[in-house]
Hints:
Elements: H1 5-14, H2 18-30, H3 37-50
Amino acid sequence: xxxxxxxxxxxxxxxxxxxxxxxxxxxxxxxxxxxxxxxxxxxxxxxxxxxxxxxxxxx
Length: 59
């Protein structure tokens, strides 16, 4: 079964990096960077990489 583009995009964001991506996009749109959040977001992204995908996204 081939995934639809929206499912592929969602699955890509669940494998880590989404917190830092949000932080970077926030910086690009506002000019505000909060360095204290970088280690927190990196830890959260690492946790996402090690968890299982939700059942509805597994094929």
